[in-house]
Structure prediction request, 832 residues.
Amino acid sequence: MTSAHRYGLDVMTVVSISDCNGWQLASTVPGDEPGATDWYPIPAARSVNALLNDGVLDHLPRLAVAQPGERDWWYRLALPEERPAHAVITLAGLATLYDLWIDDQPALSGHNAFITDYVALPASARQLTLRFRSLARAVNERKPRPQWKTGLVNNNLRWYRTSLLGHTAWSGSLWAIGPCEPMVCRSNAHTWLDQWSLCPVVQGSDCQVLIRPPENTPPDLSDTRLTLQLSDAPSIALSGTDETRSFGDLPLWQVHSQGTPHRHRFTLAVWQGEECLAEKTVLLGFRAIDVTRNDQTLAFQINQRSLFMRGACWSHSNLAGYEFDAGKARKILTAARDAGLNMVRIGGTMQYEADAFYELCDELGLLVWQDAAFANMDYPHDDPDWLASASTEIRQQARRLSQYASVVAWCGNSEVEQQAAMLGQPRDRWRNPWFAEHLPALLREANPDWPYWPSTPCDGALPFHTDTGLAHYFGLGAYRRDEQDLQLSQVLFTPECLGHSHLPDDAFIARHFGAPAPLTHTPAWKAGVPRDAGCGWDFEDIRDHYLQQYFHTDPVRLRSVDPAGYAQRSRLLTGYLLSQAFRLWRSSASPCQGALTWWLNDLVPGAGWGLFDSDGGAKPALHGVASAWQSVQVSLVPRGLNGHSLSCINEGPTPVDARLNVMLLNTRRGNRLDHQQPLTLAAHSDSLTSLDVVLDGFQDTTASYQFGAEPWDVIAVSLRDGNNALLSQHCHFPTGLDLPVEYDRDTLGLTCEIERQGADVWLTLSAQRFVFFAEFTLTGWQAERQGVHLLPGAPQRIRLVPDSPDQTRLRGHLSALNLASKIRLAAEVERP
Prediction:
């Protein structure tokens, strides 16, 4: 017996069918049945993708391994005799066309990978057989034509409810096949209990739970009673029907940047007389959601506090196996939270995530924007079978996700309206009744507080216009616009934006590609660079466009003669671009109230859209954008002939007393201007002031007027607390990023000190001249910050984290964009 953590049930009532001994697998031509010699033993019932990735299927015929989507796949198991009485098998994540037999008798057939099925298991049952029919054959069959066609995927996929991962140009060519979630066998009491919905809501100061029973109640459980218990308080009896229970003024669940994500333990139990047949325990967080929507703004308030939503779009934790990788997800989301991210989006091209994902977001105080799993196609909403299947899917998923405080927004689809509009379709074809009426009605049944948008992007004269409703902003990116476009576009809220080809660090490149610098011309490297279908360019070309613009150099020549220099500039540039965008959008100079960059995590090794590589490690771009995601932040907003504005933000609940430092540098001439003044940032404040007012004079900080002395090439602002600790810093480079290289170490005056203070190890840096985009390459240690700018005479401390607790030897080097050579770092660190 084994526990099923997803369900929170008693361990003696659950059998993991997926992990039982004796599973066998066969692969056949579509429509054929396997012969006696076609079956091979497998260690567990996992997806075909996972078995292939682990080498379990290497002995199969070459065609089966090379083209798994063209085959039928069969699983069978001699059922364990030890199983719960009145057993029910729960089947979720079956991808995608499946049939189930119990002792050669048909028991189930389906074509929706997002539906959970429940199959009663007779006491006499001895064998279970599953078949997954070829999706490739199905989508190539003739189907009724859509009103319009997308060029991104096979349009017949609109008939089959499955993830588009593996079908798009940027997600490889192997889609999910087989059981992608664990199959479990439980008593009918536990299965019934698991289908109850507990939805936490807040009404005024009253925390309430909306309690929803399953649609069907098994007849042999009709004489049972239910109870609900908050922590150790007395249990309360439930009616067994829809009801709402109040629990008073409980501590609220807060987003991590605004407070503590409090959760409360609730236990739901089903009783027969004095015997507890089953129980499950959940942790519920209570939070209030409000959204202001009009032509001028689209803003979230969580617990009556406005909050700028900043983050990224989640992809998948294990595309190779189409399984949820809990360890990698925790690593990525924890690091993202520490970087300042407060929202992740699960897009319509992906899939609904495992419960463990949403539980982790609840724990970490992160918000989730959830798309229903529809994207880019003209779905057959008027087909009764399709509508029934999609309705069951949304009803189940909405009830499942209604218990999570982190889930605060739903969207009907990704880019359906945009696709139709860009193809020149009439307006009445952009949005169909499924997304306009049916889907939101199902969501309201599960949680009436959820805000809903029918599509992203949407609204405005055209859905993809950026100054109304939801926008997908790729101006400073795929459309090769400059930074001024950030202000011209007047984005209100962008759930998908700024997709860039972010380079991983040198260690990752060496590990996966066998070279310290990217060999950008090789097929292996290009396989990890994203591209859109039908385009003659990829996103590395986009990055090269900006490299030329900001460094005033030819990227082709640079990567030919100095591949290491090309890699260094490339990996730092994209984080800088993201930082510039978020700093403007977060300031009150912009109407924007939220931005989620297009991908948090890469699917495959390479320079993908993700801020994290496919191993779950942070890319240099994350460090760049993290400087613009902090709860206490100072930023420079360029305003052309109006100079710079100074943006100061404090999202926290208490005032911050700080010292503002302004420094203007001309690194070529060695000129410098300093200004300091005390500054108090009120709680939950956002201010915007002209930098010329702060400096009390004209300095042409944006290099706009083009007369007089050579302009400043570094404009820096920083906030430090009473202990001189750096709270926030921003450097703007009005003339570009090609600053002069420093060759003389003595003139540079760079010092590095490594010391332990209590449990932490710190690297303290100081320089007499400006050092920008400093990076730390260490063996056995990780620097918490990368891409650091050192202002003359302004020390910075960077925490160093060991790879293992007993690590004491530190070796590595420091490099920077304007240093002619690397600086060696070495120390023996004291044990704590």
User: Anything to note?
Assistant: The chain is about 20% helix and 30% strand. The first strand starts at residue 14 and ends at 16. The mean pLDDT is 94.
